[in-house]
From TrEMBL:
The keyword Chloroplast does not apply. One of its GO terms (molecular function) is methylglyoxal synthase activity. Residues 1-128 form the DAGKc domain. Pfam families: DAGK_cat, YegS_C. The keyword Kinase applies. This is Lipid kinase. SUPFAM superfamilies: NAD kinase/diacylglycerol kinase-like. GO terms for cellular component: cytosol. One of its GO terms (biological process) is phospholipid biosynthetic process. Keywords: Kinase, Transferase.
Amino acid sequence: MTERRAALILNPAAGHAGDAVASLPARLQGAFALTVYETTEDRGAAACAEAARRDGASLVIAAGGDGTVSSVASALLGTDTCLGILPLGTANSIAHTLGIPSGLDGAMDVLVQGEPVQVDAARANGRTMVLLAALGLHADTVGETPQDAKQRWGVLAYIGTGLKKLMSLEPFQVEIETEDQRIHCRATAVTIANMAPARTILAQGPAVVSPTDGQLDLTIVSATTLVEAVATGLHLLRTAIDGEPVERDNVGFLAARKLFVTADPPQHVLIDGEEAGTTPLVVECLPGALKVMVPRREEVPLPPPAPEVEAKLEGLPDLEIEAKA
């Protein structure tokens, strides 16, 4: 039996990589005919993945955080080459959403025994987006959390920064354009998600954020005080766990294939956990563009496509909706 040809893309700087990185090639050699590519300052994960694909790897394994996974995915979109994930970052939200275990042993089992599925991806300001794009509170919290704190404390590092941001929330005016309408309102956070785990609460306006429905899910949050923000966050978490759409007036949502977002004043943009300049932001869904290795569906099913629920926008402050001709 011919061994499967696989490539391992290592990011030594990922959040909790530590000594685990050094042992990965040896642990995978028994299952694959393996070639190892290590990212450097001059050669990023996307370039390594492109080289691996050209060299004939049928499985390209991203060992790192969400940024590394997204970069590797950018070289595989629209191809038959499958993405594998070994979560070594801070949040590992892509792996979490797809049901890939956080422990290396479990994640490696998925590479060997899992199954490939087609999931949606997106293009955000010219970048590949697998997870989500954000502006406002989420983007500022992640962008302002020091790398050394993330490496030391993991996801907990975001809590301290987030609490500081909650103490001084600064609403902004936002305009969102879809295929058929323009929406104006005031917000403190805007998230456009292709996929997102329940813990990414600012993306959880709709009942389900599915990576297989061919749509992007927009969530707008307009909380302006600490108390309001905490109450809103708890509501978003509860409805996400229950698989229900959000009900609070200060949260709105809709689904669309393409979104164009501007903000006044301009806001920092986060794409798949990486800082990506400032608004404006253009995001377009790429349905079924990425093949990824996940646990077998009878064991860990993917989030289902969302039920047909109308967009909820009423209640957002300064709301204006204009139909496009």
